Amino acid sequence: MIQNGETVLSNIIASQINSHRRFGGVVPEVASRHHVEQITLCLNEALTEAGVTPDQLQAVAVTYGPGLVGALLIGLSAAKAFAWAHGLPLIPVNHMAGHIYATRLVQPLKFPLLALLVSGGHTELVYMVEDGSYEIIGETRDDAAGEAYDKVGRVLGLSYPSGKELDQLAHQGEDTYDFPRAMLKEDNFDFSFSGLKSAFINLVHNAEQRGEVLDTANLAASFQASVVEVLVTKTIRACKTYPVKQLVIAGGVAANQGLREVMKLALAEELPELELVIPPLKLCGDNAAMIGAAAHVELQKQHVAAMDLNANPSLAFQHI
């Protein structure tokens, strides 16, 4: 529950991590069933915690993509029913825009800005000249950074989701394995992590076949050093190319301490006047508050959806 697009009155999260952990990743059918079980409970809890009744609400925000289609459809059905029952407008929100606007819950956005979005499914650089205006200037051509973290964590035998544990392990090791930095010197802002993932998996499997024992902490440190160097180098290059007042890092991988540390140091050295904004850890992962913050902007622009709004699992940013 969000007030004025920037004040969190309640932010209820029903985690499914324990259910998916035994499978080593998200199972769409399991995710959908959990949504069915929890969505009305979360809705009621959010109203109660915020101390708000439906007649005090201005609108209902809903994510319609990108994401797993089953989970999206359940969220859409619940939001439509609630909006219709209480005569409220339905505000469609791009899930990735929500990650950017999680930052607004901490401090105001300053335009023009650049956002580095890093999550399990997305890695992209988004240039914004104003609220609600998105221009993708760089994106991954294959795997997202978060996806590579999950696959590498599985190879190392870490529990799902492995990002936090892999980050902690990386801080205990050194970059000794010299993994590739794909597209680092190319004249664009795109990313690629598929080759890095393959190089890591091949190194580990080949060592196992030879009976060679590798240093797990150094493996983690080497992998993270490659990911972070590419993300930081490309982002700073983009910040030098585009006239920006603020750099936002958002998405689940924004919680990575290695990325945070290296980005802060690099900016202090190369662009000390540029403001870096990263949401607190509790707002980096998927949450309702960020969708409410993004919806406030859409409501001001009168972007209201009809009741036939459908899920779009491959939804992309629309440059306005």
Question: Describe it for me?
Answer:
- The protein is of the alpha/beta class and 320 residues long.
- The protein folds into two domains: 115 residues, Nucleotidyltransferase, domain 5, CATH 3.30.420; 170 residues, ATPase, nucleotide binding domain (Nucleotidyltransferase, domain 5).
- The chain is built from ten helices and nine strands.
- The protein has a five-stranded mixed β-sheet with strand order 7-6-5-8-9. The chain has a two-stranded antiparallel sheet with strand order 1-2. Strands 3-4 form a two-stranded parallel sheet.
- The model has no long low-confidence stretch (mean pLDDT 95).
What's the number of domains? 2
CATH superfamily of the largest domain: ATPase, nucleotide binding domain
Q: Order of strands in the sheet with the most strands?
A: 7-6-5-8-9
Low-confidence stretches: none
Radius of gyration: 20 Å
What is the structural class? alpha/beta
Mean pLDDT: 95
Distance between the termini: 27 Å
Major sheet: size, sense and barrel closure?
5 strands, mixed
Helical percentage: 40-55%
Number of continuous helical runs: 10
Reported CATH architecture of the largest domain: 2-Layer Sandwich
Order of helices and strands: EEHHEHEHEEEHHHHEHEH
Main location: cytoplasm
Catalytic activity: L-threonylcarbamoyladenylate + adenosine(37) in tRNA = N(6)-L-threonylcarbamoyladenosine(37) in tRNA + AMP + H(+)
Subcellular location: Cytoplasm
Cofactor: Fe(2+)
